[in-house]
Design brief:
The complex is a heterodimer. Chain A has 14 helices and 14 strands. Chain A starts with a helix and ends with a helix. By secondary structure, chain A is an alpha/beta fold. Chain B has one domain. Classes of the chains: A alpha/beta, B mainly alpha. Chains A and B meet through strand 6 and helix 5 of A and helix 1, helix 4 and helix 10 of B. Bound molecules: adenosine-5'-diphosphate and magnesium ion.
């Protein structure tokens, strides 16, 4: 019987792996099944060739009207996913549909319905004015000139660039050019908009304006969808309807921020400032009874420890261990769980630690 | 959507891509901070190149400017300027948009016809090359005794040859643009380099007979060879016919061959560009930035 079951699974079910896919595509703004991407890096010799698994078995179902966040450290695969969904990059396995069409097979149908903005870069034709840059892109999407100019004026006012409309874009600071790029994304009123770290490199005020506008844009029209990537916890937490946490190419959890944080409802979260640890003693703390996860942030000679404890009273053992090791406790605080804690709980390290380790390796 | 409206939509998309790319290309190419630079670029540089050729010719032939060889070389050299300019104009847009302006990914995901967009980006260079070619011809007529009798020129054939020639050069530019998509590093000047290499195989300054026999077929496969021959014949008819290579062929036959080869290159360009684009998508090269 077992053998027959296997036979059935392999030969009969396999061709139907994507059976429901076609039907589902129409219900979702973004849909991906078993999406994966491997980069091949060719070395000088054949033996040196290596592979980087940038994305692995990503399954997403994002509905129209959602503001969906993808949260993960640098190198997690966020940009790779966006590139696949925007038809710029071919996946090496699985498939994805955006706005009802297959990104691989029906790219020309996907393109008029989407747009994308990458943060942290200054793109655009420096010798054209801000208005000319934007007008040209609107033209590529077939938006009549008069309507385009009207939208350009509105959007420039929203991001506070109205007075620079006729400046050459090369005269703009990097931050302002990025704002122009953000306007380019919204200008074509896409069904699905992809924002890859849209606030990267913007100052605090500008980031807040952009976030507010992103939220409003989705709320204004239930057919609009945004997929936004970020490695800022707060951005994902405060802005997004749902968040997928991604690390090393894998989606580890996907839910509303509040629901994700509820996972840690039973745990106790403590933040503790101590005299400089200089990186030592973390292993010992991790091994204490009742300690689920510890992460360490060192900044300006001060060490901050973040604990996820199974029970609140486990903090006593922690305090004892630290004082026995002649570490002084400067400040202790119990706090509510954040997405940062959810990440630490899933990955074992904080985003900051993952990025630091990545830098040390790479 | 019905087939006719689909065709209409696709035509409109191409026209839009071409029109805007032409506008953008012109903004970029004509953006000379200084008109003086523009003059150097479009006038003095080609004239200097021509002057070198003329000096070399005069040394080798002991200043035999009356020989039909001279207008043959002079016209070949002048019109060959189009080859480098158009091919560079189209293919360089790939590197420019990808690495310099960082807009290529936004262009690729926009609903535009990318190959048509690239061809549009080449138009400005074509216009600048036209100025260079005209000035070079004028210089030859005024100072070097190149005789172009405007009343004798076969204008109809000249215009037809130019039209087919432009399409042919655009197709060569597109093939090169596809290669540029895949080349990450230091493809600076590859357009000029390819044009320079093909210079020898197009009968621009010497007949194909001069080439070693093994390399001659390459010259006969190059549409530029027939294009230059047609242009010479339309402008200075009898002189050009004094040359052996293609003398056995009538104008109509030459035109037929040029059309046939242009069509072949168009098919090749369409196929190879699509192939390169697919490969670039697979390898993740569309928004690649090399630090050079
Ligand atoms: N073109 C590429 N070639 C090789 N490896 C790449 C390429 N692009 C990204 N990677 C690698 O894939 C992984 C995911 O990168 P990316 O998608 O850019 O992550 P993120 O946007 O989350 O920072 C990283 O390890 C990165 O080094
Ligand atoms: Mg990224």
């Amino acid at each position: 019987m077992k053998l027959l079951d296997d036979y059935y699974t392999i030969t009969l079910r396999q061709p139907n792996k994507f059976a429901n896919f076609r039907r589902k595509t129409m219900d979702f703004a973004i849909l991906s099944e078993h999406l994966g991407r491997v980069y091949k890096i060719r070395g000088a010799k054949k033996a040196e060739a290596k592979q980087i698994i940038a994305l692995q078995d990503v399954n997403l179902e994002i509905r129209p009207g959602e503001l969906f966040g993808l949260l993960g450290p640098n190198g997690a695969g966020k940009t790779t996913l966006i590139k696949i969904l925007t038809t710029l990059l071919a996946p090496t396995s699985g498939r994805a549909c955006v706005a009802g069409f297959d990104v691989q097979k029906e790219a020309p149908k996907v393109r008029p319905r989407i747009n994308m903005v990458s943060g942290g870069e200054s793109s655009g034709y420096g010798l054209l004015t801000v208005r000319e840059n934007l007008w040209m892109f609107a033209q590529f999407y077939g938006i009549p000139s008069r309507q385009a100019h009207q939208r350009i004026d509105e959007l420039l006012a929203v991001v506070g660039l109205a007075d620079r409309a006729n400046s050459k874009s090369s005269d703009l600071s990097t931050g302002l050019r990025q704002k122009m790029n953000v306007v380019r994304g919204f200008l074509t009123d896409p069904d699905v908009l992809f924002l890859d770290e849209p606030t990267l490199g913007l100052d605090v005020g500008a980031s807040r304006e952009v976030r507010r506008f992103v939220r409003k844009w989705v709320d204004d029209d239930p057919t609009r969808t945004i997929l936004l990537t970020t490695h800022y916890m707060v951005e994902a937490d405060e802005l997004c309807d749902r968040v997928a946490i991604i690390n090393q190419g894998k989606v580890l959890a996907c839910d509303a921020p509040a629901t994700l944080k509820q996972r840690l409802q039973r745990e106790a979260i403590f933040r503790m400032q101590v005299s400089p640890l200089n990186g030592s003693g973390l292993g010992a703390l991790q091994g204490l009874p009742g300690v689920r996860k510890v992460s360490l942030h060192e900044q300006n000679g001060a060490s901050t420890l973040e604990f996820i404890l199974e029970r609140e009273d486990a903090i006593a053992a922690v305090v004892n261990a630290l004082t026995a090791g002649e570490t002084r406790i400067l400040h202790l605080q119990k706090r509510e769980p954040t997405l940062e804690d959810v990440f630490v709980d899933l990955v074992g390290r904080s985003i900051e630690e993952v990025e630091r380790a990545e830098q040390a390796e790479g | 959507m019905s087939t006719t409206s689909q065709i209409r939509a696709s035509f409109l998309e191409r026209w839009r891509s071409f029109r805007l790319a032409t506008w953008l290309g012109w903004q970029i190419e004509s953006n000379w901070a200084d008109p003086f630079l523009f003059a150097i670029y479009s006038l003095i540089k080609p004239l200097a190149g021509t002057a070198i050729l003329v000096v070399m010719y005069s040394i080798i032939t002991r200043s035999d400017f009356a020989s039909p060889v001279f207008p043959y070389i002079y016209l070949g050299n002048a019109f060959y300027m189009y080859v480098g300019q158009v091919m560079t104009g189209i293919s360089w847009a790939v590197i420019d948009d990808r690495e310099h302006y960082k807009t290529m990914k936004y262009m690729v995901i926009a609903p535009l016809h990318f190959p048509t967009y690239l061809m549009g980006r080449g138009v400005a260079r074509f216009i600048i090359a036209t100025i260079s070619v005209f000035v070079t011809l004028l210089f030859g007529v005024l100072f070097l005794g190149v005789e172009i009798d405007l009343a004798q020129v076969d204008w109809l054939l000249f215009i037809a040859s130019m039209l087919v020639g432009v399409v042919m050069l655009a197709m060569m530019g597109l093939i090169l643009a596809g290669v540029m998509l895949l080349l990450a590093h230091h493809s600076w000047g590859i357009g000029e380099a390819v044009a320079g290499a093909l210079y020898l195989f197009s009968g621009a300054i010497f007949p194909l007979e001069v080439l070693p026999p093994a390399l001659r077929p390459l010259g006969f496969l190059m549409p530029v060879t027939y294009w230059l021959e047609l242009l010479r014949r339309t402008l200075v008819g009898p002189v050009a016919q004094a040359f052996p290579t293609l003398a056995a062929l009538s104008n109509l036959q030459l035109m037929g061959i040029l059309l046939g080869l242009t069509l072949a290159f168009a098919l090749l360009a369409s196929f190879s560009f699509r192939w390169c684009m697919r490969l670039a998508r697979e390898r993740g090269l569309i928004d690649l930035v090399t630090n050079y």
